[in-house]
Amino acid sequence: MPLLLRATLPLLQVLALSFYQRFAAHPEASDILSRDNGAAARALLGVILIDSVNLDPSAKKVCDGDIAAASALQLIAPEPGQAQLFAQLDDAKFDQTFWGSLNPAQCLRYDFKSFTTAGKSVGLSSVLCPFNMLMVKSNFVEEVEKYRGQFDLYGVLTMAKANDGTRARQVCLTSKHDSMAAEAAKFLAAYEGGFFQLEELKEVFVPSSVLAFDQKNTAPSRKQVVPACLKYFESLA
User: Are residues 70 and 109 in the same domain?
Assistant: First the structure.
């Protein structure tokens, strides 16, 4: 996968379905999507598959619109098949050579989003490599400090894929307020009866300003972490 596509994949994931739904109504849509052996259709299909974890309902990221759009796009671009296309893109997404080539600033802004409620803000960077890989990058802590100063709570959510296909997640929290990271971590650990299954990392590579945890329940993503963080803020009101 080209470097530019991988670096902009999160944005494409957000736009792909909306773009297809609007574009499909155009009278020349079918012709344009079919050009170059269905290149445009294949590109749209790929990001829908990645965003929905290959249209898997158990991942709780797929909607009826995803399924309808994917079905239509597969008719235009049948090769490679759905399973093969998803596997190729998923491997590229987690390519550790790619993540190793990025500097800390690129890693943290790759898939960053911020949220606000009850007068408090949280920023969360999703990164597809383990925390210890980030820590060895020059100036990583300094880049974290930049985000830390902008939000009440800042977090790095990591996910990595092993050779056998299993996934591992970590949650790392810091705050410009003295005790907020520790209080938020305690709240997340107890959230919905221990939903995230957080186990604190006490490794030498974890800086003192950051609390890091293995997330043993690997199913929840940022889509579940965000509501938990916002509920923590609401509990302070």
Answer: no
